[in-house]
Amino acid sequence: MKKLLSLIAIAAFGLTTAFAQTPATTPAKAKTVAKKEVKTTTAPVKAGVKQEAKKVETKTTTTAAKVKADGTPDMRFKENKAKAVTKVAGPTKKDGTADMRYKANKEAAKKN
User: Where is this region: Disordered (predicted)?
Assistant: First the structure.
């Protein structure tokens, strides 16, 4: 009986290691993209009706600060770096940052 159980245990162990060594499923092939043709039709224009073209105005300002796509200032430019400098309310550390051990700095941080 012990020989039979040990034989089954060895067979089970052998099968699990054999299946564990097989490679995983093959990687998925790249999807093919089918091009779709879109047909657009324009309605015929009546002879007596005039079409008015709408004019779209875009405003650009040259004095505006440079901003990223998400709207935050781009810090690579000098004018944005100058605006970012803020005065600390209370005592500072050697590196110039606010020392948060003081009440004045803690209150200023809560306001921001």
Answer: 85-112
